[in-house]
Amino acid sequence: MSQYLMDLLAALTNCMCCFPGSPQLRINNRRFKLLRLLGEGGFSYVYLVQETSTSALYALKKIRCPFGQESVSLALKEVEAYALFSPHPNIIHAVDHAVESANDKSDPGSKTVYILLPYYRRGNLQDAINANLVNHTKFPERRLMVLFLGVARALKAMHQYRVKGAPGGEEARQRAKSVRAEAEEADKDAVRRAKTRRKDVDADEEDVEQQPLMNGEVTKSQEGVGDGELRAYAHRDVKPGNIMLSDSGTSPILMDLGSLAPSPTHITSRALALATQDTAAEHSTLPYRAPELFDTKTGTVIDTKTDIWSFGCTLFACLVGKSPFEMRSEETGGSLSICVLGGDWRFPDEESMASGGGRRKKKDVKGKGKGKDDGGDDDVADGGISEGVREVVRRCLRVEAGERPDVDEVIEMVEKVVAELPEDGEDDPAGGVEE
User: Fold this and answer.
1) Rounded CA gap, 296 and 314, in Å?
2) Long-range contact set of residues 179-185: C-beta below 8 Å, sequence gap at least 24
3) Interval 76-126: pLDDT, tens
4) Strands 22-27 vs 18-19: parallel, antiparallel or unpaired
5) Is residue 183 a contact partner of residue 80, using CB atoms and an 8 Å limit?
6) Which residue from 207, 343, 375, 433 has the fewest beta carbons nearer than 10 Å?
7) What's the whole-number mean pLDDT along residues 127-134?
8) For 217-244, how does the pLDDT look when each residue is reduced to its tens digit (9 = 90+)?
9) How much is the pLDDT for 167?
10) pLDDT tier, 160 (very low <50, low <70, confident <90, very high otherwise)
11) CA 307 from chain center: how many Å?
12) Quick check: 115 and 61 in contact, CB under 8 A?
Protein backbone atom coordinates (compact mmCIF):
# COMPACT_ATOMS: atom_id res chain seq x y z
CA MET A 1 0.00 0.00 0.00
CA SER A 2 2.85 2.38 0.80
CA GLN A 3 4.38 1.74 -2.63
CA TYR A 4 1.03 2.43 -4.26
CA LEU A 5 0.69 5.74 -2.41
CA MET A 6 4.22 6.77 -3.33
CA ASP A 7 3.66 5.99 -6.97
CA LEU A 8 0.28 7.72 -6.95
CA LEU A 9 1.95 10.83 -5.56
CA ALA A 10 4.61 10.63 -8.26
CA ALA A 11 1.95 10.27 -10.93
CA LEU A 12 0.14 13.35 -9.68
CA THR A 13 3.30 15.45 -9.58
CA ASN A 14 4.73 14.24 -12.89
CA CYS A 15 1.62 14.15 -15.06
CA MET A 16 0.64 16.75 -17.60
CA CYS A 17 -1.96 18.47 -15.55
CA CYS A 18 -2.86 17.66 -11.98
CA PHE A 19 -5.66 18.85 -9.83
CA PRO A 20 -4.97 19.60 -6.16
CA GLY A 21 -6.78 17.32 -3.77
CA SER A 22 -8.08 15.01 -6.49
CA PRO A 23 -6.36 11.95 -8.03
CA GLN A 24 -6.78 13.09 -11.63
CA LEU A 25 -4.45 13.64 -14.57
CA ARG A 26 -4.63 14.93 -18.10
CA ILE A 27 -3.30 13.16 -21.17
CA ASN A 28 -3.43 15.18 -24.39
CA ASN A 29 -6.40 17.27 -23.25
CA ARG A 30 -8.31 14.28 -21.90
CA ARG A 31 -8.91 14.13 -18.16
CA PHE A 32 -8.84 10.90 -16.18
CA LYS A 33 -9.47 9.87 -12.61
CA LEU A 34 -7.15 7.26 -11.11
CA LEU A 35 -9.24 4.47 -9.58
CA ARG A 36 -6.83 1.72 -8.52
CA LEU A 37 -3.57 -0.03 -9.26
CA LEU A 38 -4.01 -3.05 -11.54
CA GLY A 39 -0.43 -4.30 -11.64
CA GLU A 40 3.24 -3.39 -11.61
CA GLY A 41 6.60 -4.66 -12.76
CA GLY A 42 10.05 -3.20 -13.29
CA PHE A 43 9.70 0.49 -14.13
CA SER A 44 6.02 0.24 -15.08
CA TYR A 45 2.67 0.50 -13.30
CA VAL A 46 -0.80 -0.12 -14.72
CA TYR A 47 -3.80 1.75 -13.31
CA LEU A 48 -7.52 1.52 -13.87
CA VAL A 49 -8.62 5.02 -14.87
CA GLN A 50 -11.92 6.63 -15.80
CA GLU A 51 -12.30 9.43 -18.31
CA THR A 52 -14.15 12.23 -16.57
CA SER A 53 -16.11 13.40 -19.62
CA THR A 54 -17.46 9.99 -20.70
CA SER A 55 -17.03 7.76 -17.59
CA ALA A 56 -15.34 5.22 -19.89
CA LEU A 57 -12.80 2.92 -18.22
CA TYR A 58 -9.26 2.43 -19.51
CA ALA A 59 -6.02 0.82 -18.42
CA LEU A 60 -3.23 3.39 -18.07
CA LYS A 61 0.33 2.12 -18.24
CA LYS A 62 2.89 4.42 -16.69
CA ILE A 63 6.54 3.73 -17.52
CA ARG A 64 9.28 5.55 -15.69
CA CYS A 65 12.33 6.10 -17.89
CA PRO A 66 15.29 6.86 -15.61
CA PHE A 67 17.93 8.36 -17.85
CA GLY A 68 20.57 5.80 -18.82
CA GLN A 69 18.42 2.85 -17.68
CA GLU A 70 15.46 2.69 -20.04
CA SER A 71 15.11 5.10 -22.94
CA VAL A 72 11.86 6.55 -24.20
CA SER A 73 12.53 4.78 -27.49
CA LEU A 74 12.41 1.45 -25.72
CA ALA A 75 9.32 2.40 -23.71
CA LEU A 76 7.45 3.61 -26.80
CA LYS A 77 8.46 0.56 -28.82
CA GLU A 78 5.28 -1.02 -27.43
CA VAL A 79 3.11 1.80 -28.83
CA GLU A 80 4.97 1.64 -32.13
CA ALA A 81 4.16 -2.08 -32.42
CA TYR A 82 0.50 -1.52 -31.50
CA ALA A 83 0.25 1.05 -34.28
CA LEU A 84 1.91 -1.25 -36.82
CA PHE A 85 -0.49 -4.16 -36.24
CA SER A 86 -3.66 -2.10 -35.84
CA PRO A 87 -6.43 -2.80 -36.54
CA HIS A 88 -6.47 -6.51 -35.70
CA PRO A 89 -9.32 -8.11 -33.71
CA ASN A 90 -6.89 -10.17 -31.59
CA ILE A 91 -4.13 -7.60 -30.96
CA ILE A 92 -4.58 -4.79 -28.48
CA HIS A 93 -4.28 -1.18 -29.69
CA ALA A 94 -3.13 1.95 -27.90
CA VAL A 95 -5.90 4.50 -27.42
CA ASP A 96 -3.46 7.33 -26.74
CA HIS A 97 0.02 7.99 -25.37
CA ALA A 98 2.13 10.85 -24.07
CA VAL A 99 5.71 11.54 -22.94
CA GLU A 100 6.43 13.89 -20.05
CA SER A 101 9.64 15.14 -18.47
CA ALA A 102 9.91 14.06 -14.85
CA ASN A 103 10.74 16.82 -12.38
CA ASP A 104 13.56 14.85 -10.80
CA LYS A 105 16.61 16.99 -10.02
CA SER A 106 18.69 13.92 -9.23
CA ASP A 107 18.01 12.55 -12.72
CA PRO A 108 17.44 15.54 -15.01
CA GLY A 109 17.03 13.51 -18.21
CA SER A 110 14.37 11.16 -16.85
CA LYS A 111 10.96 11.03 -18.50
CA THR A 112 7.62 9.30 -17.94
CA VAL A 113 5.67 7.56 -20.69
CA TYR A 114 1.90 7.12 -20.40
CA ILE A 115 0.13 4.56 -22.59
CA LEU A 116 -3.67 4.51 -22.57
CA LEU A 117 -5.09 1.07 -23.38
CA PRO A 118 -8.57 -0.49 -23.55
CA TYR A 119 -9.77 -1.99 -20.27
CA TYR A 120 -11.11 -5.54 -20.35
CA ARG A 121 -13.23 -6.31 -17.29
CA ARG A 122 -12.68 -10.08 -17.54
CA GLY A 123 -8.93 -9.70 -17.14
CA ASN A 124 -6.51 -12.12 -18.75
CA LEU A 125 -6.11 -15.86 -19.12
CA GLN A 126 -3.93 -16.02 -16.00
CA ASP A 127 -6.81 -14.55 -13.99
CA ALA A 128 -9.09 -17.23 -15.44
CA ILE A 129 -6.56 -19.97 -14.62
CA ASN A 130 -6.33 -18.74 -11.03
CA ALA A 131 -10.13 -18.71 -10.74
CA ASN A 132 -10.30 -22.27 -12.06
CA LEU A 133 -7.76 -23.44 -9.47
CA VAL A 134 -9.67 -21.77 -6.64
CA ASN A 135 -13.10 -22.97 -7.79
CA HIS A 136 -11.96 -26.45 -8.93
CA THR A 137 -13.25 -25.78 -12.43
CA LYS A 138 -11.70 -26.00 -15.88
CA PHE A 139 -12.07 -24.33 -19.26
CA PRO A 140 -14.64 -25.89 -21.61
CA GLU A 141 -12.35 -27.47 -24.19
CA ARG A 142 -13.99 -26.25 -27.36
CA ARG A 143 -14.26 -22.66 -26.16
CA LEU A 144 -10.65 -22.77 -25.02
CA MET A 145 -9.50 -23.94 -28.44
CA VAL A 146 -11.56 -21.20 -30.11
CA LEU A 147 -9.71 -18.70 -27.94
CA PHE A 148 -6.37 -20.19 -28.92
CA LEU A 149 -7.36 -20.03 -32.57
CA GLY A 150 -7.61 -16.26 -32.07
CA VAL A 151 -4.18 -16.20 -30.41
CA ALA A 152 -2.72 -18.10 -33.36
CA ARG A 153 -4.26 -15.61 -35.78
CA ALA A 154 -2.71 -12.73 -33.84
CA LEU A 155 0.68 -14.44 -34.10
CA LYS A 156 0.13 -15.00 -37.82
CA ALA A 157 -0.23 -11.23 -38.30
CA MET A 158 3.21 -10.79 -36.69
CA HIS A 159 4.98 -13.84 -38.13
CA GLN A 160 3.82 -13.08 -41.66
CA TYR A 161 3.80 -9.28 -41.65
CA ARG A 162 4.55 -7.72 -45.04
CA VAL A 163 5.70 -4.13 -45.42
CA LYS A 164 2.71 -1.87 -46.11
CA GLY A 165 0.49 -4.94 -45.94
CA ALA A 166 -2.39 -5.99 -43.69
CA PRO A 167 -3.67 -5.47 -41.07
CA GLY A 168 -3.30 -1.67 -41.30
CA GLY A 169 -1.33 -1.13 -44.50
CA GLU A 170 0.71 1.98 -45.17
CA GLU A 171 -1.40 4.14 -42.85
CA ALA A 172 -0.58 1.92 -39.85
CA ARG A 173 3.08 1.84 -40.85
CA GLN A 174 3.24 5.64 -40.97
CA ARG A 175 1.61 5.88 -37.54
CA ALA A 176 4.23 3.49 -36.17
CA LYS A 177 7.06 5.48 -37.77
CA SER A 178 5.63 8.65 -36.26
CA VAL A 179 5.78 7.07 -32.80
CA ARG A 180 9.39 6.05 -33.45
CA ALA A 181 10.32 9.61 -34.47
CA GLU A 182 8.63 11.01 -31.36
CA ALA A 183 10.56 8.58 -29.16
CA GLU A 184 13.90 9.45 -30.74
CA GLU A 185 13.23 13.17 -30.31
CA ALA A 186 12.33 12.59 -26.64
CA ASP A 187 15.62 10.77 -26.12
CA LYS A 188 17.54 13.61 -27.76
CA ASP A 189 15.77 16.05 -25.47
CA ALA A 190 16.78 13.94 -22.49
CA VAL A 191 20.42 14.15 -23.59
CA ARG A 192 20.17 17.92 -23.96
CA ARG A 193 18.64 18.28 -20.50
CA ALA A 194 21.29 16.11 -18.92
CA LYS A 195 24.12 18.06 -20.59
CA THR A 196 22.63 21.37 -19.43
CA ARG A 197 22.27 20.27 -15.79
CA ARG A 198 25.37 18.12 -15.47
CA LYS A 199 28.11 20.36 -16.72
CA ASP A 200 30.63 18.50 -14.63
CA VAL A 201 30.18 15.39 -16.80
CA ASP A 202 32.43 15.02 -19.81
CA ALA A 203 30.29 15.49 -22.96
CA ASP A 204 31.94 12.74 -24.98
CA GLU A 205 31.60 10.28 -22.12
CA GLU A 206 27.94 11.23 -21.71
CA ASP A 207 27.18 10.73 -25.41
CA VAL A 208 28.38 7.16 -25.17
CA GLU A 209 26.59 6.45 -21.91
CA GLN A 210 23.21 7.76 -23.01
CA GLN A 211 22.74 5.86 -26.28
CA PRO A 212 19.07 4.77 -26.53
CA LEU A 213 18.39 1.11 -25.87
CA MET A 214 17.22 -0.11 -29.28
CA ASN A 215 16.77 -3.82 -28.71
CA GLY A 216 14.30 -5.31 -31.18
CA GLU A 217 13.70 -2.50 -33.66
CA VAL A 218 10.18 -2.37 -35.09
CA THR A 219 9.78 -0.04 -38.10
CA LYS A 220 13.54 0.57 -38.44
CA SER A 221 14.00 -3.13 -39.13
CA GLN A 222 11.96 -2.61 -42.31
CA GLU A 223 14.68 -0.50 -43.93
CA GLY A 224 15.82 -2.19 -47.13
CA VAL A 225 12.71 -4.41 -47.25
CA GLY A 226 10.57 -3.74 -50.31
CA ASP A 227 6.85 -3.03 -50.28
CA GLY A 228 4.91 -6.26 -49.94
CA GLU A 229 7.99 -8.22 -48.86
CA LEU A 230 8.06 -10.30 -45.68
CA ARG A 231 9.33 -8.61 -42.49
CA ALA A 232 8.48 -11.13 -39.78
CA TYR A 233 8.28 -10.36 -36.07
CA ALA A 234 8.16 -12.62 -33.03
CA HIS A 235 6.23 -11.63 -29.90
CA ARG A 236 8.75 -13.36 -27.59
CA ASP A 237 6.56 -13.27 -24.46
CA VAL A 238 3.37 -15.20 -25.17
CA LYS A 239 1.90 -16.29 -21.81
CA PRO A 240 -1.50 -16.35 -20.04
CA GLY A 241 -0.90 -12.94 -18.46
CA ASN A 242 -0.45 -11.33 -21.89
CA ILE A 243 -3.71 -12.64 -23.36
CA MET A 244 -6.70 -10.54 -22.36
CA LEU A 245 -10.28 -11.75 -22.68
CA SER A 246 -12.80 -9.60 -24.52
CA ASP A 247 -15.79 -8.44 -22.51
CA SER A 248 -17.91 -11.07 -24.28
CA GLY A 249 -15.43 -13.75 -23.22
CA THR A 250 -15.25 -15.16 -26.74
CA SER A 251 -12.15 -13.44 -28.15
CA PRO A 252 -8.53 -13.28 -26.98
CA ILE A 253 -6.55 -10.03 -27.18
CA LEU A 254 -2.77 -10.41 -27.37
CA MET A 255 -1.01 -7.59 -25.57
CA ASP A 256 2.34 -6.31 -24.27
CA LEU A 257 4.35 -6.00 -27.48
CA GLY A 258 7.33 -4.49 -25.69
CA SER A 259 9.19 -7.77 -26.21
CA LEU A 260 8.54 -7.80 -29.99
CA ALA A 261 11.63 -8.68 -32.05
CA PRO A 262 12.35 -8.81 -35.80
CA SER A 263 12.71 -12.38 -37.00
CA PRO A 264 14.78 -14.31 -37.90
CA THR A 265 17.92 -13.43 -35.94
CA HIS A 266 21.09 -15.08 -37.23
CA ILE A 267 23.45 -15.75 -34.32
CA THR A 268 26.80 -15.01 -35.94
CA SER A 269 28.96 -14.56 -32.83
CA ARG A 270 29.22 -15.57 -29.20
CA ALA A 271 28.62 -11.96 -28.19
CA LEU A 272 25.32 -11.90 -30.09
CA ALA A 273 24.34 -15.26 -28.57
CA LEU A 274 24.90 -13.90 -25.05
CA ALA A 275 23.07 -10.66 -25.88
CA THR A 276 20.09 -12.67 -27.17
CA GLN A 277 20.02 -14.71 -23.97
CA ASP A 278 20.22 -11.57 -21.83
CA THR A 279 17.38 -9.90 -23.75
CA ALA A 280 15.26 -13.04 -23.36
CA ALA A 281 16.02 -13.18 -19.64
CA GLU A 282 14.69 -9.63 -19.33
CA HIS A 283 11.67 -9.78 -21.63
CA SER A 284 10.62 -13.45 -22.02
CA THR A 285 8.91 -15.00 -18.98
CA LEU A 286 10.87 -17.99 -17.67
CA PRO A 287 8.22 -20.79 -17.60
CA TYR A 288 7.11 -19.96 -21.17
CA ARG A 289 10.54 -19.27 -22.70
CA ALA A 290 11.76 -21.45 -25.60
CA PRO A 291 14.88 -23.60 -25.07
CA GLU A 292 16.86 -21.79 -27.77
CA LEU A 293 16.54 -18.61 -25.68
CA PHE A 294 18.00 -20.36 -22.61
CA ASP A 295 21.06 -21.67 -24.41
CA THR A 296 21.63 -19.70 -27.61
CA LYS A 297 24.36 -21.19 -29.76
CA THR A 298 26.56 -19.47 -32.31
CA GLY A 299 25.63 -20.42 -35.87
CA THR A 300 21.95 -20.97 -35.12
CA VAL A 301 18.89 -18.97 -36.14
CA ILE A 302 16.28 -17.68 -33.67
CA ASP A 303 12.95 -17.28 -35.41
CA THR A 304 9.20 -17.17 -34.82
CA LYS A 305 9.20 -20.77 -33.55
CA THR A 306 9.93 -19.29 -30.11
CA ASP A 307 6.29 -18.12 -30.07
CA ILE A 308 5.05 -21.58 -31.07
CA TRP A 309 6.77 -23.04 -28.01
CA SER A 310 5.22 -20.38 -25.77
CA PHE A 311 1.83 -21.03 -27.40
CA GLY A 312 2.09 -24.70 -26.40
CA CYS A 313 3.15 -23.84 -22.84
CA THR A 314 0.25 -21.38 -22.53
CA LEU A 315 -2.29 -23.91 -23.79
CA PHE A 316 -0.94 -26.49 -21.33
CA ALA A 317 -1.22 -23.96 -18.47
CA CYS A 318 -4.89 -23.38 -19.31
CA LEU A 319 -5.51 -27.14 -19.30
CA VAL A 320 -3.54 -28.04 -16.19
CA GLY A 321 -3.09 -24.84 -14.17
CA LYS A 322 0.59 -24.03 -14.74
CA SER A 323 3.35 -24.21 -17.33
CA PRO A 324 4.46 -27.79 -18.14
CA PHE A 325 8.02 -27.11 -17.04
CA GLU A 326 6.96 -25.25 -13.92
CA MET A 327 4.88 -28.31 -12.99
CA ARG A 328 7.66 -30.75 -13.80
CA SER A 329 10.37 -28.85 -11.92
CA GLU A 330 8.14 -28.81 -8.84
CA GLU A 331 7.55 -32.55 -9.16
CA THR A 332 11.23 -33.44 -9.54
CA GLY A 333 12.76 -30.67 -7.45
CA GLY A 334 15.00 -29.92 -10.41
CA SER A 335 15.84 -26.76 -12.30
CA LEU A 336 13.13 -25.36 -14.57
CA SER A 337 15.73 -24.51 -17.22
CA ILE A 338 17.08 -28.08 -17.19
CA CYS A 339 13.53 -29.37 -17.68
CA VAL A 340 13.07 -27.01 -20.64
CA LEU A 341 16.37 -27.88 -22.30
CA GLY A 342 15.70 -31.60 -21.85
CA GLY A 343 12.07 -31.43 -22.94
CA ASP A 344 11.13 -32.97 -19.58
CA TRP A 345 7.38 -32.52 -19.16
CA ARG A 346 4.22 -34.59 -19.12
CA PHE A 347 0.47 -34.40 -18.85
CA PRO A 348 -0.63 -35.28 -15.31
CA ASP A 349 -1.72 -38.81 -16.34
CA GLU A 350 1.34 -39.56 -18.52
CA GLU A 351 4.99 -40.42 -18.07
CA SER A 352 7.60 -37.75 -18.74
CA MET A 353 8.16 -36.94 -22.41
CA ALA A 354 11.91 -36.99 -21.69
CA SER A 355 11.86 -40.49 -20.14
CA GLY A 356 10.91 -42.23 -23.35
CA GLY A 357 7.37 -42.64 -22.09
CA GLY A 358 5.96 -40.34 -24.74
CA ARG A 359 2.18 -40.39 -24.52
CA ARG A 360 1.93 -43.55 -22.40
CA LYS A 361 -0.35 -43.23 -19.42
CA LYS A 362 0.77 -44.02 -15.91
CA LYS A 363 -0.51 -47.28 -14.47
CA ASP A 364 -3.12 -47.00 -11.75
CA VAL A 365 -3.86 -49.84 -9.34
CA LYS A 366 -7.49 -48.74 -9.17
CA GLY A 367 -7.93 -49.44 -12.86
CA LYS A 368 -7.73 -45.86 -14.13
CA GLY A 369 -5.62 -44.95 -17.12
CA LYS A 370 -7.34 -47.32 -19.51
CA GLY A 371 -6.83 -46.79 -23.20
CA LYS A 372 -8.88 -47.79 -26.19
CA ASP A 373 -7.75 -51.42 -26.05
CA ASP A 374 -8.96 -52.02 -22.50
CA GLY A 375 -12.32 -50.37 -22.58
CA GLY A 376 -11.42 -46.70 -22.23
CA ASP A 377 -12.14 -43.89 -24.64
CA ASP A 378 -8.97 -42.83 -26.43
CA ASP A 379 -10.54 -39.59 -27.70
CA VAL A 380 -10.90 -38.13 -24.21
CA ALA A 381 -8.13 -39.29 -21.89
CA ASP A 382 -8.40 -39.82 -18.16
CA GLY A 383 -7.14 -36.32 -17.40
CA GLY A 384 -10.20 -34.93 -19.18
CA ILE A 385 -8.08 -33.62 -22.07
CA SER A 386 -8.98 -34.70 -25.59
CA GLU A 387 -6.29 -36.43 -27.61
CA GLY A 388 -6.47 -33.80 -30.36
CA VAL A 389 -5.81 -31.02 -27.84
CA ARG A 390 -2.90 -32.97 -26.36
CA GLU A 391 -1.38 -33.40 -29.79
CA VAL A 392 -1.40 -29.63 -30.40
CA VAL A 393 0.62 -29.19 -27.20
CA ARG A 394 3.01 -32.02 -28.08
CA ARG A 395 3.72 -30.63 -31.56
CA CYS A 396 4.44 -27.15 -30.18
CA LEU A 397 6.76 -28.40 -27.41
CA ARG A 398 9.42 -30.00 -29.60
CA VAL A 399 12.83 -29.03 -28.23
CA GLU A 400 14.26 -28.62 -31.71
CA ALA A 401 12.73 -25.47 -33.17
CA GLY A 402 12.79 -26.90 -36.69
CA GLU A 403 10.48 -29.73 -35.62
CA ARG A 404 7.76 -27.37 -34.38
CA PRO A 405 4.92 -26.39 -36.71
CA ASP A 406 4.76 -22.89 -38.14
CA VAL A 407 1.80 -20.65 -37.37
CA ASP A 408 -0.19 -21.80 -40.42
CA GLU A 409 0.15 -25.42 -39.32
CA VAL A 410 -0.89 -24.48 -35.79
CA ILE A 411 -4.01 -22.76 -37.11
CA GLU A 412 -4.83 -25.79 -39.24
CA MET A 413 -4.40 -28.14 -36.25
CA VAL A 414 -6.51 -25.99 -33.94
CA GLU A 415 -9.27 -25.57 -36.53
CA LYS A 416 -9.41 -29.34 -36.94
CA VAL A 417 -9.65 -29.86 -33.18
CA VAL A 418 -12.41 -27.24 -32.88
CA ALA A 419 -14.37 -28.95 -35.67
CA GLU A 420 -14.09 -32.34 -33.96
CA LEU A 421 -14.91 -31.28 -30.40
CA PRO A 422 -18.56 -31.31 -29.27
CA GLU A 423 -20.33 -28.06 -28.49
CA ASP A 424 -19.88 -26.83 -24.91
CA GLY A 425 -22.74 -25.99 -22.57
CA GLU A 426 -24.38 -22.59 -22.14
CA ASP A 427 -22.23 -21.41 -19.23
CA ASP A 428 -20.09 -18.28 -19.16
CA PRO A 429 -18.12 -18.27 -22.47
CA ALA A 430 -14.76 -17.78 -20.75
CA GLY A 431 -15.67 -19.31 -17.41
CA GLY A 432 -14.86 -22.71 -16.03
CA VAL A 433 -16.98 -25.81 -15.57
CA GLU A 434 -16.76 -28.13 -12.59
CA GLU A 435 -14.17 -30.83 -12.79
Assistant:
1) 22
2) 179/76, 179/79, 179/80, 179/83, 179/97, 180/73, 180/76, 180/80, 180/218, 180/219, 180/220, 182/76, 182/99, 183/71, 183/72, 183/73, 183/75, 183/76, 183/77, 183/80, 183/99, 183/212, 184/73, 184/212
3) 888 999 999 999 999 999 999 999 876 666 665 678 899 999 999 999 999
4) antiparallel
5) yes
6) 375
7) 96
8) 777 788 888 888 999 999 999 999 999 9
9) 79
10) very high
11) 10
12) yes
Beta strands 261-262 and 233-234 are: antiparallel
Strand partners, 117: 59
Residue type, 48: L
List strands edge to edge, sheet with 57-65: 18-19, 22-27, 30-41, 44-51, 57-65, 111-118, 96-101
SS3 readout for the chain: CHHHHHHHHHHHHHCCCEECCEEEEEECCEEEEEEEEEEEECCEEEEEEEECCCCCEEEEEEEEECCCCCCHHHHHHHHHHHHHCCCCCCECCCCEEEEEECCCCCCCCCEEEEEEEECCCCCEHHHHHHHHHHHCEECCHHHHHHHHHHHHHHHHHHHCCECCCCCCHHHHHHHHHHHHHHHHHHHHHHHHHHHHHCCCCCHHHHHHHCCCCCCCCCHHHHCCCCCCCECCEECCCCCHHHEEECCCCCCEEECCHHHCEECCEECCCHHHHHHHHHHHHHHCCHHHCCHHHHCCCCCCEECCHHHHHHHHHHHHHHHHCCCHHHHHHHHHCCCHHHHHHHCCCCCCCECCHHHCCCCCECCCCCCCCCCHHHCCCCCECCCCCEHHHHHHHHHHCCCCHHHCCCHHHHHHHHHHHHHHCCCCCCCCCCCCEEC
Which pLDDT band holds residue 19 (cuts at 50, 70, 90)? very low
Q: What is the pLDDT of residue 7?
A: 54
